[in-house]
Structures are given as C-alpha cells and as structure tokens.
C-alpha cells in the first residue's frame, strides 16, 4: 500500500525534482503551452507559502524514505451569482510520479487522497487539465469519473 501524506517544507527538493520531470513531459508534448523546466518551479519558499494557504493541498507518496509522487491541488470557491449557486471545486494543478515508479498505483493513491479531501471540504467536483503527457495515467484513473464523483448531480 502506498503511503500518502500532506507535504512539508522538508519535501521541497524532492517535489522540485518531480515537478521538473513532469514539466519536461508537458513541455515535450505541448511546447507552445508549457515552459521548459526551470529552478523557479517549486522552490522551498513557494512550497512553504502553499502549505500555509488553507486552499492549497500538497501531498506526497513516500516509499522507503523516498518521495516518489506528489500532487498539488487548490480548493476554489465560487460565489453565487445570477446564473449559478455557489460551489467549491478542487483544481489539480499538477500530479507527478517518478518515472521508475509509474504503473504501481501511486498516481491512483494520490487521486484517492484528493477525492477524500474533496469530500471533506464539500467540494462539488474535481477538475484538471489533461495533456498528451498524462495519457496513460488518464486511462488508468478515470478522470471523467472524478469530475462527477463528488457531484450532487
């Protein structure tokens, strides 16, 4: 079983490495949309700020004292207006699993963690942007199912 936990500042270097790995996948697939990896993607100060933000969720999977996966998501609150009722949703900014550990259920464990958080926050949906780099993962974890799982539709 994969151990998912909330990240802490001491995870910054490992998260930065995973972020760069995922960013390279995205940049290779869609260079017109994604920038190449760079040092400013996830420095310790940025992670510290995210960890202090009550609307940010940063979690990691740790196996044998090694961070092998992470997810960064944000709880977004929308106020009601003339067209819609108020709602909360979770937006997944990034999910990444070390290349040597892919296909072992780590991404699914991270998504299950986010599903549990969404339910705890009363979020009506979980959304994220799928890219060609995410193709195999998206097939293993039914992204469409996630959009509706928390829903009250």
Describe it:
The protein has 153 residues and is an alpha+beta fold. Helices cover 37% and strands 26% of the residues. It contains 5 helices and 5 strands. The chain has helices spanning 12-29, 44-52, 106-121, 135-140, 143-149, and strands at residues 3-6, 56-63, 66-78, 87-97, 125-128. β4, α3 (106-121) and β5 form a beta-alpha-beta unit. The longest helix has 18 residues, at 12-29. The radius of gyration is 15 Å and the shape is globular.
Q: How many helices does DSSP assign?
A: 5
Number of E strands: 5
- Indicate the low-confidence ranges by residue numbers: 143-153
Biggest β-sheet: count, sense, barrel? Answer: 5 strands, mixed
Q: Order of strands side by side in the largest beta sheet? A: 1-2-3-4-5
> Mean pLDDT, nearest integer?
84
* N→C terminal distance: 32 Å
Alpha-carbon Rg, integer: 15 Å
The H-and-E topology, N to C, reads as EHHEEEHEHH
The share of residues in helices is 25-40%
For this entry, what is the oligomeric state of its chains?
single chain
Query: What is the 3D form?
Result: globular
The fraction of residues in strands falls at 25-35%
Look at the helices and sheets and give the structural class: alpha+beta
What's the layout of helices and strands?
Elements: E1 3-6, H1 12-29, H2 44-52, E2 56-63, E3 66-78, E4 87-97, H3 106-121, E5 125-128, H4 135-140, H5 143-149
Parallel strand pairs: 4-5
Antiparallel strand pairs: 1-2, 2-3, 3-4
Task: Summarize this entry quickly.
By secondary structure, the chain is an alpha+beta fold. It has helices at residues 12-29, 44-52, 106-121, 135-140, 143-149; strands at 3-6, 56-63, 66-78, 87-97, 125-128.
